[in-house]
Write a sequence for this structure.
């Protein structure tokens, strides 16, 4: 059966259109390494294998012929189902790959959920809903009370005036886009900061924006109305959209009574978290550190004009077609991913990363480890690695940081034979170069090949994008010793990261299936 999609998926895209492509490839027997809605190397390889199987050039790019052979079709009309139509707007806007200056990329489902919730609130604003009018009220003179006032000059500098109710609601959502990225990377199910000692749970923060229950002391009547509405509602707050793009998890809820229920709703019903936080932001802006530090480029949240443009497109759709939703089961239109439970909460992982960074300082690898932490904050990997090609091959220069056990280990690792003798000084991404590549790699599946147990890698940057095509992997080799055949150096590979056989099982067991490795050299 032909599946209709909003736009043709391309490399690095993220969204429902990519999910549809991945589902088609999987149904045809070409495994894209997951149905995550992210067009990465796994999807590209599966697509190339499919093209090759039907006699097409294996470009990994979807042309009209490939699209037809996959039984996919780009929509020519606006979808009749409002939720899908709004979601299509997000996919076509190509906003899900946005790199936020302080946090990298948010999970792609965040953009879909936020756009849908904005559509719902925009309709309510047009209908005079007092809760939404509170969100869109005129600016207060007090920046400690009103987040829109605190960021008024920032909005003005981007040509975004807060003159009308519609403008203020849209700009509030623009602010919330940035706040959600800073506080949870767009993960609806973020739990409390376990480094804090809360006795009763009233102060415990949760959800997209890490809003605390004790903020209810302001605008108490309206916040209480929102709380009661969602506590008795069967709606899930567009949860099926927000949970897309990462392996979601639910964390323990603390405290008792209403405070505990607030945490549960914040994580399981994103619409509640949005409504509650939107009202709170207009009444107590100094509750959130990223809002309070609005002039700090490192700690303050970012206002992204692309998000404002997206919401304008949503307004145009709602003005013409309206927006009604019963939050129906959308299984027919969306690919579901089975959740996995992670007992480690986001803030706990941040603490573990800080410990790893302190360990990295003593071996001069802090800056590199921090780069991959910042680039992939959503990753729940317990093992992260750095290969320092500034060091000679006679020394241990592969460092694996173990977040779970709060330590690290170091290993010898070979470089490519055309990269240099004792030191690796020349690097390449070219097929057949027999040189090592620099950049960030993500580990993938294991296999048994001519070198025994081996671990495949995917290059994540332009400097290593041909990793799969070059068969650059982690494998064992007897020549990985400090003084191979009296040369004063380790032996060399054809570009692979070869490890001594005595350590290969440990290295692969730790790094397989989704860890990140950064390979670096100074001035390269």
């Amino acid at each position: 059966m032909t599946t209709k999609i909003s736009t043709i998926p391309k490399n690095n895209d993220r969204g429902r259109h990519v999910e549809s492509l991945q589902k088609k490839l999987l149904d045809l027997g070409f495994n894209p390494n997951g149905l995550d809605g992210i067009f990465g190397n796994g999807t590209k390889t599966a697509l190339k294998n499919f093209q090759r199987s039907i006699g097409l050039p294996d470009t990994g790019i979807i042309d009209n012929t490939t699209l037809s052979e996959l039984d996919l079709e780009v929509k020519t009309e606006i979808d009749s189902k409002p939720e899908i139509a709004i979601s299509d707007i997000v996919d076509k806007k190509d906003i899900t790959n946005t790199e936020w200056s302080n946090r990298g990329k948010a999970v792609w489902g965040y953009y879909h959920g936020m756009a849908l919730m904005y559509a719902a609130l925009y309709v309510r604003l047009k209908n005079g809903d007092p809760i939404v009018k509170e969100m869109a009220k005129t600016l207060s003179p007090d920046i400690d009370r009103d987040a829109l006032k605190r960021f008024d000059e920032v909005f003005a500098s981007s040509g975004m005036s807060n003159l009308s109710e519609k403008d203020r609601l849209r700009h509030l959502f623009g602010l919330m886009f940035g706040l959600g990225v800073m506080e949870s990377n767009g993960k609806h199910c973020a739990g409390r900061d376990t480094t804090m000692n809360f006795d009763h749970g009233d102060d415990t923060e949760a959800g997209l924006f890490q809003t605390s229950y004790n903020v209810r002391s302001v605008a108490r009547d309206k916040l209480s109305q929102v709380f009661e509405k969602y506590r008795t509602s069967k709606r899930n707050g567009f949860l099926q959209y927000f949970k897309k793009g990462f392996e979601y998890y639910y964390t323990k809820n603390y405290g008792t009574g209403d405070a505990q229920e607030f945490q549960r709703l914040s994580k399981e019903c994103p619409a509640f978290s949005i409504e509650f936080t939107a009202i709170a932001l207009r009444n107590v802006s100094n509750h959130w550190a990223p809002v309070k530090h609005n002039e700090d480029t490192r700690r303050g949240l970012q206002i992204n004009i692309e998000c404002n443009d997206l919401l304008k497109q949503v307004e145009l759709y709602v003005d013409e077609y309206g927006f009604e939703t019963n939050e129906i089961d959308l299984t027919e239109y969306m690919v579901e991913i089975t959740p996995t439970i992670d007992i480690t909460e986001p803030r706990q992982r941040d603490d573990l990363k800080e410990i790893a960074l302190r360990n990295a300082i003593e071996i001069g690898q802090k800056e590199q480890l921090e780069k991959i932490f910042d680039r992939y904050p959503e990753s729940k990997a317990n093992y992260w690695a750095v290969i320092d090609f500034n060091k000679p091959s006679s020394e241990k220069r592969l460092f694996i940081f173990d977040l779970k056990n709060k330590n690290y280990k170091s290993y010898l690792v070979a470089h490519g034979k055309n990269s240099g003798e004792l030191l690796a000084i020349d690097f390449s991404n070219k097929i057949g170069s027999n040189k090592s590549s620099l950049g960030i790699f993500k580990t993938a599946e294991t296999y048994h090949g001519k070198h025994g147990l081996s671990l495949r890698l995917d290059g994540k940057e332009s400097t290593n994008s041909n990793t799969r095509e070059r068969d650059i992997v982690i494998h064992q080799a007897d020549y990985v010793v400090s003084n191979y055949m009296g040369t004063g150096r380790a032996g060399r590979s054809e570009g692979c990261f070869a490890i001594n056989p005595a350590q290969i099982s440990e290295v692969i067991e730790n790094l397989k299936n989704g860890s990140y490795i950064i390979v670096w050299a100074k001035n390269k």
User: Anything to note?
Assistant: The chain is about 40% helix and 10% strand. Confidence is low (pLDDT under 50) at residues 193-201, 327-344. The longest strand covers residues 439-449. Residues 492 and 515 are 24 Å apart (CA to CA).
